[in-house]
Amino acid sequence: xxxxxxxxxxxxxxxxxxxxxxxxxxxxxxxxxxxxxxxxxxxxxxxxxxxxxxxxxxxxxxxxxxxxxxxxxxxxxxxxxxxxxxxxxxxxxxxxxxxxxxxxxxxxxxxxxxxxxxxxxxxxxxxxxxxxxxxxxxxxxxxxxxxxxxxxxxxxxxxxxxxxx
Length: 165
Description:
Pfam families: AsnC_trans_reg (PF01037), HTH_AsnC-type (PF13404). One of its GO terms (molecular function) is sequence-specific DNA binding. It comes from Rhodoferax antarcticus ANT.BR. Keywords: DNA-binding, Transcription, Transcription regulation. This protein is elongated. The protein has two domains: 4-62, Winged helix-like DNA-binding domain superfamily/Winged helix DNA-binding domain (Arc Repressor Mutant, subunit A), CATH 1.10.10; 66-147, 2-Layer Sandwich (Alpha-Beta Plaits), CATH 3.30.70. β1 and β2 form a beta hairpin. The chain has helices at 13-24, 30-37, 41-53, 86-96, 123-135, and strands at residues 4-6, 9-11, 73-81, 102-107, 114-120, 140-147. It has a four-stranded antiparallel beta sheet. A two-stranded antiparallel ribbon has the order 1-2. By secondary structure, the protein is of the alpha+beta class.
């Protein structure tokens, strides 16, 4: 049986199939998952518990449609800090953690220091409640924003092919 070691955990073909099935529908019962991956519900339960304990499965969430709950505007923002140092980065990251509208914040190399994905109810809300607050963070030098016109691909499913190697 092909096994891959990730963080001291052995993943076999059943674990990989289970991870793939969970990424498609994390609300599936252990019975349904077992049928999909050819394991008993008790084996599925033990494997899921092990995958959770190892940190491979970080958490289980419901994915909401932003537009259906009134958050129809999405923006990608590029933030540059006034100075580059640990203190400034920590200050920015601490501030941005309090912005519920910021879905993702990435520290990056290149022209910007951070890239943010932001949702808002309207362009006015984006401008007033998010971008103005963002620009007022003391360590921020500049903010450039792009409004998303259309989502071509959006996925939470991670590729698992590299595990099988």
